Amino acid sequence: MKMISRKMLATTLTLAMVAPLAVACTKGEKADDKQERVLRIATPMMYGGEDQYFRQQFTEIFEFANPNIKIEIVSTMDERFRNGNIQPGEKMPDPMEKLKEIMQGDNPPDVVMVGYEQLPDIIESNLLTQLDPRITKDKFDTTGIVPAVMDGMKNAGGGKLYALAPTFNSSALIYNKKMFTDAGVDFPKDGMTWDETFDLSKRLVKGEGESRINGFSFNTQSQGGDLFYGLQMYTAPLQLKMFDDAGEKMTVDTDQWEKVWTKMAQMQKEKVFPEMMDPSKPMNRQYDQNNPFAYDDFMSGRLAMGIINYGQIQQLTNANKNAANFKGYTPIEWDVVTIPSHPEAKGVGGAIYMDGIMGINAKAQNPDDAWKFIKFINGEDWAKLKSHSSYNLVARSKYLKPKDGLEFHMEAFYNVTPAPMDNNTKIYRTNPNIYQVQEIGRTQFMSVLQGKTTAREALKQWQTQGDAMLKQMKENPNAPMNPMIQQAVPAG
């Protein structure tokens, strides 16, 4: 007997899994519904027309179940950007503006896929069809879609649904059970405020220097003292912005920004967060040969609580399962609870990313197949098949269960509401130098943490220096920024 190739075996298994989906998809289909048709899907992301990942992730099963529907993928991302062939100072076309253009062109796409931060733009431009009437007409059940996704989609559409997302990724607060037990402190729980979390952290700090155990960090992996970027999870639900919607004026010299920065400096002083790294000393623990997970504070036993992405869970469970193979690693007993929130934004988290957000173009040539496709990839059968992923979560809660026989509080990853979206996303897309404004803030924030200046003084500096940089960007958006601009602007 000839050996069956691995490729043939994999194909056979895939078809065996997909077959029930095909039956479910074609059940009730009209006998004359065999006409060959084209369904065009457009996206501003880096997928090409024959992108293998896109098809494997989103369209292959649908195409198998609907052989008469040919799917065309149209990317509005410039080929030069996708291939890395960009010349210094070259202005690239905005893929979102290109998407909006073709959505209203002579050969408009039927379905569009965008990022969560891009969704409000095309909704407000009246370019998407509202899905609620179709959902009601077809009695499409959305009750099983997790709050993290449904609330996010509705918030983007002002309470109405213009798109759905079949998968998402999220974060939760992970904690080391033994550290809490040893300290005689109760375990964290769902729905804690940030202040409650910080108070817990203070009770768990132990030791000094390299042997210190920290209570909390915005990132389980060693940040090198970069609290500034971790802090964005804290500020996002408060809707604190760096600059106005036009990208012309800084908005950081305010009482609310001062309150946050003062709070963070005080928490750093009270040892809520890991010690700031001394840049003059090498970060030896990142490369400890006796500890393969030295770069991760939680897995190295240096951190009691931290924000962890769902995709990191797999690494932790694998390490625990194979602890005997990792010299210097001790298995960790852990669990997760929801990300803390502010009293004024209860239950709102700042680390939810939805994947495969798709809506129907208001000028779709084939709106019925567009809805058929969106309904299919957001349905239960698709979720059941895709629920085996270790890195993304399916939007249907019925299929969100811990893998490999584990038991942990899975609901912590999805019983939250996404933070409101920043309306400045277009500025980030069209202005290649805008991130340098953020870097000014990082430098000033570090001065506050080090006690060199007050929060308000630092924010005034950021406001003044940032305004000067934004002015320079507006006058010549593609020119290199003057590195001396920060020194050239007078303080406060």
UniProtKB/TrEMBL annotation:
Protein name: Extracellular solute-binding protein
Localization per record: Cell envelope
Keyword Signal: yes
Family to which the UniProt record says this protein belongs: Belongs to the bacterial solute-binding protein 1 family.
Keywords for the protein's UniProt record, in alphabetical order: Signal, Transport
Family matches, as InterPro entries: Bact_solute-bd_prot1, SBP
Main location: other
SUPFAM superfamilies reported for this sequence: Periplasmic binding protein-like II
Top-rank lineage group of the source organism: Bacteria
Residues spanning the signal sequence: 1-24
